[in-house]
Protein backbone atom coordinates (compact mmCIF):
# COMPACT_ATOMS: atom_id res chain seq x y z
CA UNK A 1 0.00 0.00 0.00
CA UNK A 2 1.27 3.48 -0.86
CA UNK A 3 0.84 6.25 1.66
CA UNK A 4 0.02 9.86 0.75
CA UNK A 5 -0.66 13.14 2.49
CA UNK A 6 -4.22 14.45 2.45
CA UNK A 7 -4.86 18.21 2.67
CA UNK A 8 -8.18 20.03 2.71
CA UNK A 9 -7.56 23.79 2.33
CA UNK A 10 -10.46 26.19 2.74
CA UNK A 11 -9.51 28.79 0.16
CA UNK A 12 -8.56 28.78 -3.52
CA UNK A 13 -5.17 30.44 -2.98
CA UNK A 14 -4.19 27.79 -0.42
CA UNK A 15 -5.22 24.95 -2.73
CA UNK A 16 -3.28 26.37 -5.70
CA UNK A 17 -0.23 26.97 -3.55
CA UNK A 18 -0.32 23.46 -2.07
CA UNK A 19 -0.26 21.79 -5.49
CA UNK A 20 2.03 24.29 -7.25
CA UNK A 21 4.70 23.84 -4.55
CA UNK A 22 4.77 20.04 -4.81
CA UNK A 23 5.35 18.20 -8.10
CA UNK A 24 3.80 15.05 -6.58
CA UNK A 25 0.57 16.77 -5.45
CA UNK A 26 -2.79 16.50 -7.20
CA UNK A 27 -6.21 18.07 -6.73
CA UNK A 28 -9.06 15.72 -5.84
CA UNK A 29 -12.76 16.59 -6.13
CA UNK A 30 -15.40 13.81 -6.22
CA UNK A 31 -12.64 11.23 -6.54
CA UNK A 32 -14.70 9.03 -8.87
CA UNK A 33 -11.90 8.96 -11.45
CA UNK A 34 -8.79 9.69 -9.41
CA UNK A 35 -9.48 7.13 -6.67
CA UNK A 36 -9.86 4.43 -9.33
CA UNK A 37 -6.47 5.44 -10.68
CA UNK A 38 -4.92 5.30 -7.21
CA UNK A 39 -6.21 1.76 -6.81
CA UNK A 40 -4.96 0.71 -10.24
CA UNK A 41 -1.55 2.33 -9.76
CA UNK A 42 -2.15 4.62 -12.75
CA UNK A 43 -1.77 7.70 -10.49
CA UNK A 44 0.72 7.77 -7.60
CA UNK A 45 0.46 11.23 -6.01
CA UNK A 46 2.38 11.99 -2.82
CA UNK A 47 -0.25 14.53 -1.73
CA UNK A 48 -3.94 14.87 -2.44
CA UNK A 49 -5.40 18.36 -2.15
CA UNK A 50 -9.16 18.14 -1.62
CA UNK A 51 -10.94 21.02 -3.40
CA UNK A 52 -14.46 20.38 -2.13
CA UNK A 53 -14.32 22.94 0.71
CA UNK A 54 -13.37 25.92 -1.47
CA UNK A 55 -16.89 27.29 -1.95
CA UNK A 56 -16.89 26.50 -5.68
CA UNK A 57 -20.32 24.90 -5.72
CA UNK A 58 -22.73 27.61 -6.91
CA UNK A 59 -24.57 28.04 -10.22
CA UNK A 60 -25.10 31.78 -10.68
CA UNK A 61 -26.32 34.19 -13.41
CA UNK A 62 -23.31 35.66 -15.24
CA UNK A 63 -23.37 38.28 -18.04
CA UNK A 64 -26.65 36.95 -19.42
CA UNK A 65 -25.49 33.35 -19.11
CA UNK A 66 -24.40 31.18 -16.19
CA UNK A 67 -21.30 30.69 -14.09
CA UNK A 68 -20.98 27.12 -12.85
CA UNK A 69 -18.65 26.48 -9.92
CA UNK A 70 -16.00 23.81 -10.50
CA UNK A 71 -17.43 21.62 -7.74
CA UNK A 72 -21.06 21.67 -8.81
CA UNK A 73 -22.15 18.05 -8.91
CA UNK A 74 -23.11 16.63 -12.31
CA UNK A 75 -26.61 15.73 -11.09
CA UNK A 76 -27.22 19.29 -9.77
CA UNK A 77 -26.04 20.85 -13.02
CA UNK A 78 -28.25 18.55 -15.10
CA UNK A 79 -31.29 19.41 -12.97
CA UNK A 80 -30.79 23.19 -12.91
CA UNK A 81 -33.85 24.82 -14.55
CA UNK A 82 -31.82 27.36 -16.57
CA UNK A 83 -29.50 24.64 -17.85
CA UNK A 84 -32.46 22.48 -18.84
CA UNK A 85 -34.17 25.34 -20.63
CA UNK A 86 -31.32 27.30 -22.22
CA UNK A 87 -28.53 24.73 -22.54
CA UNK A 88 -30.40 21.46 -23.22
CA UNK A 89 -27.32 19.86 -24.82
CA UNK A 90 -25.50 20.24 -21.50
CA UNK A 91 -28.31 18.72 -19.45
CA UNK A 92 -28.73 15.85 -21.91
CA UNK A 93 -24.98 15.12 -21.99
CA UNK A 94 -24.79 14.97 -18.21
CA UNK A 95 -27.79 12.65 -17.96
CA UNK A 96 -26.28 10.41 -20.65
CA UNK A 97 -23.17 9.91 -18.50
CA UNK A 98 -22.36 7.30 -15.86
CA UNK A 99 -25.11 6.43 -13.32
CA UNK A 100 -27.22 8.45 -10.91
CA UNK A 101 -24.91 7.62 -8.01
CA UNK A 102 -21.77 8.64 -9.88
CA UNK A 103 -23.42 11.86 -11.11
CA UNK A 104 -24.15 12.77 -7.47
CA UNK A 105 -20.44 12.42 -6.70
CA UNK A 106 -18.83 13.70 -9.91
CA UNK A 107 -18.04 17.39 -10.29
CA UNK A 108 -18.00 19.77 -13.26
CA UNK A 109 -14.21 20.24 -13.30
CA UNK A 110 -13.48 16.61 -12.43
CA UNK A 111 -15.62 15.47 -15.34
CA UNK A 112 -13.75 17.67 -17.83
CA UNK A 113 -10.39 16.55 -16.46
CA UNK A 114 -11.13 12.82 -16.15
CA UNK A 115 -8.65 10.72 -18.08
CA UNK A 116 -9.11 8.38 -21.03
CA UNK A 117 -10.76 5.00 -20.57
CA UNK A 118 -8.31 3.38 -23.02
CA UNK A 119 -7.84 -0.10 -21.54
CA UNK A 120 -4.07 0.03 -21.99
CA UNK A 121 -3.82 3.35 -20.14
CA UNK A 122 -5.64 1.73 -17.23
CA UNK A 123 -3.54 -1.46 -17.26
CA UNK A 124 -0.15 -0.70 -15.71
CA UNK A 125 1.29 -3.99 -17.00
CA UNK A 126 1.15 -2.73 -20.61
CA UNK A 127 3.17 -0.01 -22.40
CA UNK A 128 1.34 3.32 -22.76
CA UNK A 129 2.91 6.66 -23.77
CA UNK A 130 0.12 8.53 -22.03
CA UNK A 131 0.73 6.85 -18.67
CA UNK A 132 4.48 6.28 -19.06
CA UNK A 133 5.96 8.56 -21.76
CA UNK A 134 8.41 6.71 -24.01
CA UNK A 135 7.11 3.23 -23.15
CA UNK A 136 5.09 2.60 -26.35
CA UNK A 137 1.44 2.36 -27.37
CA UNK A 138 -0.33 -0.95 -26.92
CA UNK A 139 -3.56 0.31 -28.45
CA UNK A 140 -2.18 0.84 -31.97
CA UNK A 141 -1.69 -2.91 -32.47
CA UNK A 142 -4.10 -4.07 -29.76
CA UNK A 143 -7.81 -3.98 -29.11
CA UNK A 144 -8.90 -0.92 -31.08
CA UNK A 145 -12.68 -0.77 -31.01
CA UNK A 146 -12.73 2.51 -29.08
CA UNK A 147 -9.71 4.12 -30.77
CA UNK A 148 -9.72 7.62 -32.25
CA UNK A 149 -10.38 8.12 -35.94
CA UNK A 150 -9.46 11.82 -36.14
CA UNK A 151 -6.40 13.74 -34.92
CA UNK A 152 -4.60 10.70 -33.50
CA UNK A 153 -0.81 10.35 -33.60
CA UNK A 154 1.72 7.53 -33.66
CA UNK A 155 2.07 8.06 -29.91
CA UNK A 156 -1.58 7.80 -28.94
CA UNK A 157 -4.94 6.74 -30.37
CA UNK A 158 -6.97 7.21 -27.18
CA UNK A 159 -10.25 9.16 -27.09
CA UNK A 160 -11.43 11.65 -24.51
CA UNK A 161 -14.29 10.20 -22.43
CA UNK A 162 -16.26 13.18 -21.10
CA UNK A 163 -19.79 13.72 -22.40
CA UNK A 164 -20.01 17.07 -20.65
CA UNK A 165 -16.88 18.37 -22.41
CA UNK A 166 -18.46 17.71 -25.81
CA UNK A 167 -21.64 19.62 -24.92
CA UNK A 168 -19.80 22.51 -23.27
CA UNK A 169 -17.70 22.93 -26.42
CA UNK A 170 -20.88 23.21 -28.49
CA UNK A 171 -22.28 26.03 -26.35
CA UNK A 172 -19.01 28.04 -26.46
CA UNK A 173 -18.28 27.57 -22.75
CA UNK A 174 -15.18 29.09 -21.18
CA UNK A 175 -13.16 27.53 -18.35
CA UNK A 176 -11.97 29.88 -15.60
CA UNK A 177 -8.59 28.82 -14.22
CA UNK A 178 -6.74 30.06 -11.15
CA UNK A 179 -3.06 29.24 -11.36
CA UNK A 180 0.14 30.24 -9.57
CA UNK A 181 0.35 33.24 -11.94
CA UNK A 182 -3.25 34.42 -11.42
CA UNK A 183 -6.57 33.91 -13.20
CA UNK A 184 -7.09 33.21 -16.90
CA UNK A 185 -9.94 32.08 -19.11
CA UNK A 186 -9.62 29.16 -21.53
CA UNK A 187 -12.27 28.51 -24.20
CA UNK A 188 -13.46 24.89 -24.15
CA UNK A 189 -12.20 24.51 -27.74
CA UNK A 190 -8.67 25.10 -26.43
CA UNK A 191 -8.77 23.22 -23.12
CA UNK A 192 -8.03 19.71 -24.40
CA UNK A 193 -5.12 18.81 -26.70
CA UNK A 194 -4.57 16.43 -29.58
CA UNK A 195 -1.89 13.89 -28.58
CA UNK A 196 0.98 14.70 -30.97
CA UNK A 197 4.17 13.50 -29.29
CA UNK A 198 2.98 14.58 -25.80
CA UNK A 199 -0.06 12.34 -25.16
CA UNK A 200 0.62 12.52 -21.41
CA UNK A 201 -0.75 16.10 -21.46
CA UNK A 202 -4.53 15.90 -21.89
CA UNK A 203 -5.03 19.65 -21.58
CA UNK A 204 -3.27 23.01 -21.75
CA UNK A 205 -3.42 23.31 -17.94
CA UNK A 206 -0.13 23.51 -16.03
CA UNK A 207 0.68 21.86 -12.72
CA UNK A 208 -1.02 23.87 -9.97
CA UNK A 209 -3.78 25.25 -12.25
CA UNK A 210 -7.12 24.94 -10.48
CA UNK A 211 -10.36 25.13 -12.49
CA UNK A 212 -12.62 27.39 -10.45
CA UNK A 213 -15.64 27.71 -12.76
CA UNK A 214 -17.10 27.18 -16.20
CA UNK A 215 -18.97 30.05 -17.86
CA UNK A 216 -21.88 29.34 -20.19
CA UNK A 217 -22.36 32.43 -22.39
CA UNK A 218 -25.63 33.94 -23.53
CA UNK A 219 -25.24 32.39 -27.00
CA UNK A 220 -27.82 32.48 -29.81
CA UNK A 221 -27.03 28.84 -30.65
CA UNK A 222 -27.35 27.17 -27.26
CA UNK A 223 -31.15 27.22 -26.84
CA UNK A 224 -31.78 24.96 -29.81
CA UNK A 225 -29.26 22.31 -28.87
CA UNK A 226 -29.09 18.63 -28.18
CA UNK A 227 -26.74 15.78 -27.32
CA UNK A 228 -26.97 12.35 -28.83
CA UNK A 229 -24.81 9.46 -27.63
CA UNK A 230 -24.39 6.01 -29.20
CA UNK A 231 -23.16 3.36 -26.75
CA UNK A 232 -23.10 -0.35 -26.07
CA UNK A 233 -25.87 -0.20 -23.41
CA UNK A 234 -28.75 2.19 -22.90
CA UNK A 235 -27.07 3.58 -19.77
CA UNK A 236 -23.91 3.33 -17.71
CA UNK A 237 -21.60 3.19 -20.71
CA UNK A 238 -19.12 5.58 -22.30
CA UNK A 239 -19.80 6.89 -25.80
CA UNK A 240 -18.83 4.90 -28.86
CA UNK A 241 -19.51 8.19 -30.63
CA UNK A 242 -21.53 11.22 -29.60
CA UNK A 243 -22.74 14.47 -31.12
CA UNK A 244 -23.48 17.80 -29.48
CA UNK A 245 -25.30 20.12 -31.87
CA UNK A 246 -26.39 23.71 -31.32
CA UNK A 247 -28.14 25.70 -34.03
CA UNK A 248 -29.35 29.24 -34.71
CA UNK A 249 -31.91 29.15 -37.54
CA UNK A 250 -33.28 31.95 -39.73
CA UNK A 251 -36.50 30.27 -40.80
CA UNK A 252 -35.27 26.98 -42.26
CA UNK A 253 -31.79 28.27 -43.00
CA UNK A 254 -28.79 27.87 -40.72
CA UNK A 255 -27.57 31.25 -39.50
CA UNK A 256 -24.96 29.67 -37.25
CA UNK A 257 -24.24 26.31 -35.67
CA UNK A 258 -21.82 24.28 -33.59
CA UNK A 259 -21.31 20.58 -34.07
CA UNK A 260 -18.93 18.72 -31.75
CA UNK A 261 -18.14 15.02 -31.86
CA UNK A 262 -17.23 12.81 -28.91
CA UNK A 263 -15.60 9.38 -29.00
CA UNK A 264 -13.66 10.11 -32.19
CA UNK A 265 -10.57 12.00 -30.99
CA UNK A 266 -8.27 12.79 -28.08
CA UNK A 267 -10.43 15.89 -27.45
CA UNK A 268 -13.99 17.00 -28.17
CA UNK A 269 -13.83 17.35 -31.97
CA UNK A 270 -15.31 20.63 -33.18
CA UNK A 271 -16.48 19.80 -36.71
CA UNK A 272 -15.59 23.11 -38.34
CA UNK A 273 -15.53 21.83 -41.93
CA UNK A 274 -19.03 20.44 -41.45
CA UNK A 275 -20.17 23.71 -39.86
CA UNK A 276 -18.76 25.82 -42.73
CA UNK A 277 -20.64 23.69 -45.24
CA UNK A 278 -23.96 24.01 -43.44
CA UNK A 279 -24.06 27.76 -42.68
CA UNK A 280 -26.58 29.35 -45.04
CA UNK A 281 -28.14 26.00 -45.92
CA UNK A 282 -31.24 24.05 -44.91
CA UNK A 283 -30.69 21.06 -42.61
CA UNK A 284 -31.77 17.98 -44.53
CA UNK A 285 -30.51 14.42 -44.42
CA UNK A 286 -28.63 15.07 -47.68
CA UNK A 287 -26.94 18.36 -46.71
CA UNK A 288 -25.89 17.07 -43.30
CA UNK A 289 -24.60 13.77 -44.72
CA UNK A 290 -22.48 15.59 -47.33
CA UNK A 291 -21.07 17.95 -44.69
CA UNK A 292 -20.30 15.06 -42.34
CA UNK A 293 -18.51 13.21 -45.15
CA UNK A 294 -16.35 16.29 -45.79
CA UNK A 295 -15.46 16.45 -42.08
CA UNK A 296 -14.61 12.74 -42.12
CA UNK A 297 -12.39 12.90 -45.19
CA UNK A 298 -9.26 12.69 -42.98
CA UNK A 299 -10.59 9.90 -40.76
CA UNK A 300 -8.25 6.94 -40.29
CA UNK A 301 -9.77 3.63 -39.24
CA UNK A 302 -8.75 0.03 -38.64
CA UNK A 303 -10.85 -3.12 -38.85
CA UNK A 304 -11.80 -2.68 -35.17
CA UNK A 305 -13.16 0.89 -35.33
CA UNK A 306 -14.25 1.02 -38.98
CA UNK A 307 -17.83 1.41 -37.75
CA UNK A 308 -17.19 4.86 -36.28
CA UNK A 309 -17.41 7.15 -39.37
CA UNK A 310 -20.80 5.76 -40.38
CA UNK A 311 -22.00 5.89 -36.79
CA UNK A 312 -20.99 9.50 -36.18
CA UNK A 313 -22.37 10.50 -39.59
CA UNK A 314 -25.73 8.91 -38.73
CA UNK A 315 -25.74 10.43 -35.25
CA UNK A 316 -25.09 13.88 -36.73
CA UNK A 317 -27.94 13.54 -39.22
CA UNK A 318 -30.18 12.40 -36.37
CA UNK A 319 -29.18 15.31 -34.12
CA UNK A 320 -29.31 18.14 -36.67
CA UNK A 321 -32.45 17.13 -38.57
CA UNK A 322 -34.08 16.53 -35.18
CA UNK A 323 -33.27 20.09 -34.12
CA UNK A 324 -34.64 21.43 -37.42
CA UNK A 325 -37.88 19.51 -36.87
CA UNK A 326 -38.07 20.76 -33.30
CA UNK A 327 -37.62 24.36 -34.48
CA UNK A 328 -40.54 23.93 -36.89
CA UNK A 329 -42.70 22.50 -34.14
CA UNK A 330 -41.71 25.26 -31.71
CA UNK A 331 -42.67 27.97 -34.21
CA UNK A 332 -46.08 26.38 -34.73
CA UNK A 333 -46.62 25.98 -31.01
CA UNK A 334 -45.66 29.63 -30.46
CA UNK A 335 -48.16 30.85 -33.09
CA UNK A 336 -50.93 28.66 -31.69
CA UNK A 337 -50.29 29.94 -28.19
C1 LIG B 1 -18.43 3.35 -13.86
C2 LIG B 1 -18.24 4.74 -14.38
C3 LIG B 1 -18.95 5.14 -15.51
C4 LIG B 1 -18.78 6.44 -16.01
N1 LIG B 1 -19.47 6.82 -17.14
C5 LIG B 1 -19.25 8.07 -17.66
C6 LIG B 1 -19.88 8.49 -18.85
O1 LIG B 1 -20.65 7.75 -19.47
N2 LIG B 1 -19.63 9.75 -19.29
C7 LIG B 1 -18.78 10.59 -18.65
O2 LIG B 1 -18.60 11.73 -19.11
N3 LIG B 1 -18.16 10.21 -17.52
C8 LIG B 1 -18.38 8.99 -17.03
N4 LIG B 1 -17.73 8.59 -15.90
C9 LIG B 1 -16.69 9.45 -15.36
C10 LIG B 1 -17.16 10.32 -14.23
O3 LIG B 1 -18.10 11.22 -14.76
C11 LIG B 1 -15.91 11.01 -13.73
O4 LIG B 1 -15.23 10.07 -12.94
C12 LIG B 1 -16.21 12.21 -12.91
O5 LIG B 1 -16.92 13.16 -13.65
C13 LIG B 1 -14.94 12.84 -12.38
O6 LIG B 1 -15.32 13.86 -11.48
P1 LIG B 1 -14.74 13.86 -10.01
O7 LIG B 1 -15.20 15.11 -9.37
O8 LIG B 1 -15.05 12.58 -9.30
O9 LIG B 1 -13.19 13.95 -10.37
P2 LIG B 1 -11.92 13.41 -9.58
O10 LIG B 1 -11.81 11.95 -9.73
O11 LIG B 1 -11.85 13.99 -8.21
O12 LIG B 1 -10.78 14.13 -10.45
C14 LIG B 1 -10.59 13.83 -11.80
C15 LIG B 1 -9.40 14.66 -12.30
O13 LIG B 1 -9.72 16.04 -12.28
C16 LIG B 1 -8.76 16.76 -11.49
N5 LIG B 1 -9.53 17.82 -10.85
C17 LIG B 1 -10.69 17.71 -10.17
N6 LIG B 1 -11.17 18.93 -9.85
C18 LIG B 1 -10.29 19.84 -10.33
C19 LIG B 1 -10.24 21.27 -10.35
N7 LIG B 1 -11.21 22.01 -9.80
N8 LIG B 1 -9.19 21.87 -10.96
C20 LIG B 1 -8.20 21.13 -11.54
N9 LIG B 1 -8.19 19.78 -11.54
C21 LIG B 1 -9.23 19.14 -10.96
C22 LIG B 1 -8.17 15.74 -10.55
O14 LIG B 1 -6.85 16.09 -10.14
C23 LIG B 1 -8.15 14.50 -11.42
O15 LIG B 1 -7.04 14.52 -12.26
C24 LIG B 1 -17.90 7.32 -15.36
C25 LIG B 1 -17.20 6.91 -14.22
C26 LIG B 1 -17.36 5.64 -13.73
C27 LIG B 1 -16.59 5.24 -12.51
From TrEMBL:
InterPro entries for this protein: CO_DH_flav_C (IPR005107), CO_DH_flav_C_dom_sf (IPR036683), Diverse_Substr_Oxidored (IPR051312), FAD-bd_PCMH (IPR016166), FAD-bd_PCMH-like_sf (IPR036318), FAD-bd_PCMH_sub1 (IPR016167), FAD-bd_PCMH_sub2 (IPR016169), Mopterin_DH_FAD-bd (IPR002346)
SUPFAM superfamilies reported in the protein's UniProt record: CO dehydrogenase flavoprotein C-terminal domain-like, FAD-binding/transporter-associated domain-like
Domain FAD-binding PCMH-type: 1-221
Gene3D superfamilies per the UniProt record, alphabetical: 3.30.465.10, CO dehydrogenase flavoprotein, C-terminal domain (3.30.390.50), Uridine Diphospho-n-acetylenolpyruvylglucosamine Reductase, domain 2 (3.30.43.10)
Keywords: Oxidoreductase
Domain of life, per lineage: Bacteria
GO molecular function annotations of the record: FAD binding; oxidoreductase activity
Pfam families associated with the record: CO_deh_flav_C, FAD_binding_5
Protein name, entry field: Xanthine dehydrogenase YagS FAD-binding subunit
Amino acid sequence: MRTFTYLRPDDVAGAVEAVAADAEARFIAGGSNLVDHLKLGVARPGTLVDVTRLGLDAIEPHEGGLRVGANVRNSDLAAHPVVRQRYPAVARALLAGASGQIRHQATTAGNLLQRTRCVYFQDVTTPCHKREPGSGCSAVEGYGRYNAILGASESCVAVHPSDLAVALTAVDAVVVVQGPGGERRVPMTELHRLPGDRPQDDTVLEHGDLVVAVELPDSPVSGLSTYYKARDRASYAFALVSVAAAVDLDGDTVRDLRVVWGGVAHKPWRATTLEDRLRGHVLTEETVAAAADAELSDAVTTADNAYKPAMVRGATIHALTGLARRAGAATTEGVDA
